[in-house]
Amino acid sequence: MTAMRAEVMVSDEPRTAPSTANPPAFVTENVCVFYGQKQALTDVSLSINRNEVTSLIGPSGCGKSTYLRCLNRMNDTIDICRVTGDILLDGTDIYSKDIDVVHLRARVGMVFQKPNPFPKSIYENVAYGPRIHGIARGKAELDEIVHTSLEKAGLLKEVEDRLQEPGTSLSGGQQQRLCIARAVAVQPEVILMDEPCSALDPIATARIEELIDELRVNYTIVIVTHSMQQAARVSQRTGFFHLGELVECGKTEQIFTNPKDERTQGYITGRFG
Amino acid sequence: MSDTAATPPVESVLDNRRASAAIARSLKRRYRAERRFRAYGIAAVGFALLFLAFLFVDIIGKGLPAFTQTMIRLDVTLYPQDLNPEGVTNHEQLLKVLSTANYRKPIFQAITDLFPDVTSRSEQRRLLKLVSPGATFDIRKEVMEAEEAGRSIIGQRVSLLVPTSDDIDQLEKGHINADAPEAERRVSDLEIGWFNRLKERGLIETTFNTTLFTAGDSRSPELAGLWGAIVGSFWTMLVTLALSFPLAVGASIYLEEFAPKNRWTQLIEVNINNLAAVPSIVFGLLGLAVFLNFFGLPRSAPLVGGMVLALMTLPTIIIASRAALKSVPPSIREAALGVGASKVQTVFQHVVPLALPGMLTGTIIGMAQALGETAPLLMIGMIAFIVDIPSGPLDPSTVMPVQIYLWSDLPERAFVEKASAAIMVLLGFLIVMNALAVLLRKRFERKW
C-alpha cells in the first residue's frame, strides 16, 4: 500500500514530494465511474494533500464533478451509477463494506453549486448536523458550535442578531457561506466544494475565495471550478480533467505556467473548453 | 452598392423586402388565429359558467323553501284521563306510562275545538290531517321534559307550535295550485278553506326548519331531517381518513424515496394509476364480496363504507403525495445527505415536511371525492331507510349523497325541496373542504 502511494506522489510531483509525516488525505487509484453503460471517468489516479486546496478544472462534462462526488459517495444516490477502483481516505477504502456512508459524509463535508440552505432558521441550518450526529452535549455546546462555525464561515457578524430568521432570507453569497458553516459545523476532515461560486456575483465570490484560503489551515479542501483564475487564486494543486480522464495534476503554479500536456496548455490558454 | 440600389427590386427568396412583406402578411393571419382561439376560449368558459349558474339557481330556488316550515299554533289541554287513564302516581311508573301514552287525543281535541262548526266524525278526522303526525312527538317531549324536571303540566292547557302536514306546508309555500280542479290536487277545497280560516286567526306561522338539521330520515317530509345522514357521513369519512391517509402517505413515501426503480415498482405504479380509473361501483362490489360476504362485517355500517371509500381514495392520495414528494428540489436531499443525515433522516426531517402541504391537499381532494360518492355505498347496503341517528361506525346508517338519492326517489312533492336542500348542504361541505385545500396550498407555497 505504502509503495503504491509513494509511487503516485512521485508521478505527480517528482521533485517536491511532501514529507511522509503528512500523508495525503485521499489517495485514489484507477477510479472508473459508469452511468449505466456510459463510462464517465476512466482510470483517475490522484492524491489529495492535507491542509491544501486542490482544484479540479476542465471543460463541461469532463467528469470533475463526478470525481468529486465519489469522494463522499454522493454518487450512491444515483441508482445506475457504478464506481470501480480504490478511493482511500486515511488508507481505508471508502467503498469497502466496513465503511458506513453516513459516517463518511460526516468526515467529508460538501458544499454544492447552488446555495441550498434548509428552509429553517439560520441557527437550525448550522445546528442540524451536530444535532443528528450527537456531537454537542447540551444547548450551550450546540450554541458554541453554531457560533464558531458561523465565525469560521465569516458570516457571524452579519447574522449574529437574527439567528432565528429563515436561512433562505439571506442573499446568495450569504446563503453559500451559511452552507459552508453548515458543513464546517460537523467538523469534517475534508470539505468538497462543487463550483461553489458559479451562482454568485464577483464580490460574493471574492469573499468565498478568501474564506477558502482561511479554511485551508484546518481543513483539506477539494474544489471544482470552471474559472481558471479562481483555481489559480485559491489552490495549491490543480488537476485538469478532459473527457473523463485526469490529464495532468501538479502544483498550481506549474500547471498554469508550465503544463506538460498540450491539452492542458490548450485549455488554460483558452483554445478550447 | 449605389447601382444595385438603383436597379428595380429583384424577386428573389433572399430579398429582405420580399421577406418583410411575407412576414407582414403572415402576421395578420397569426393574429387572426390568436383572436379566434381567444374567442373559442371565452365562449367555452362562458358556457361553463352559464350551466353552473343554471344549476345553482335551480338547486337554490328549489331548496331554499325547505329551510322553512309552516307551523300551526294549538292550545292543547292535557287531560289526565287521556294521558294517565289508570291514575299512576309513582314517578318512575308515570314516566313509563307517559312515554307510551296516546297523544293523538289532545291534538284531536285541540284542532276540533278550533272548528266547532265541523261536527261529522269523518270531517273531524280530515281536520286532524292538517297537523303533522309528528306533532304527537312534540307534545310528548314537552310533557316528558316537564315531568322529569318535576313540574308536571298534566291537567294544564299549553300553547304549542307544531308542524303542519307536508301538503299544507306545500300549499302555504305556493307549490299547490288552488285554481286547479279539485281532483287533480292533493288538498281539497274544504281543507284550503279551513287553512285560510286558521290563517285569518293568526294561528299559522312560518319558522326556520330546525328539524332538517336535527332529525333522521322519515316517511313524512315535514319530519325528515339530514342529521342522520350527516352523522353517517362523518363516521364514514373518519374511517376513510384513518385508513387511507396513513396507508397512502406511507406507500407514496416508500415508492418515491426508498423503493428501487425496477420492473416490479413500475408494475405497481401502473396499477396504482389504473386503480384511480376503476369505476366506483366496482369497489362497491369488492366491498360486498370481501368485507360483507367473506369477513362478515355488518351491513349498512359506516365502517364498511369507510373501508370501501378508503380503497377508492388511496390512488388519489398516493398520486398527489408522490407529486408533492417529487416537487421537493433534489438540492434539499443533497444538503441533508451532505452533512451526513441518513436516508430516513433526510426523508422524514426534510423532504416530508416540505411535501406535507401537497399531501394534505391531495388528501382533502380525495376526501371530498369520497364524501360525494354514492355508487359503492349502495352495494354494501348503506341505502337502507334508517331513522335513528347512528351513534358509532358500526350502527346502520346512510350518507348525504345517498340521502339525496333516496329523497329524490320519493313521490311526495315536499321531498323535492328536501333533496335540493340536502344538495345545498352537501355542496356547502364540499366547498368548505376545497377552500381549505386551496388555503393550505397558498399558505405553504414555497419559492425556491
Can you put this structure into words, describing what you see?
Chain A has 273 residues and is an alpha/beta fold. Chain A has a single domain (2-113, 189-268), classed as P-loop containing nucleotide triphosphate hydrolases (Rossmann fold, 3-Layer(aba) Sandwich). Chain A is built from eleven helices and ten strands. Chain B is mainly alpha-helical and 448 residues long. The radius of gyration of chain B is 33 Å and the shape is extended. The model of chain B has no long low-confidence stretch (mean pLDDT 90). The chains are: A alpha/beta (273), B mainly alpha (448). At the A-B interface, helix 3, strand 6, helix 4 and helix 7 of A face helix 15 and helix 16 of B.
| DSSP strand tally of chain B | 3
Enumerate how many helices of chain A there are, as a single number.
11
CATH architecture of chain A: 3-Layer(aba) Sandwich
Strand order across the largest sheet of chain A? 6-7-8-3-9-10
Mean pLDDT over the full residue set of chain B: 90
CATH class of chain A: Alpha Beta
Q: Into which percentage range does the β-strand content of chain A fall? A: 15-25%
Low-pLDDT residue intervals, each spanning 5 or more residues of chain A: 1-20
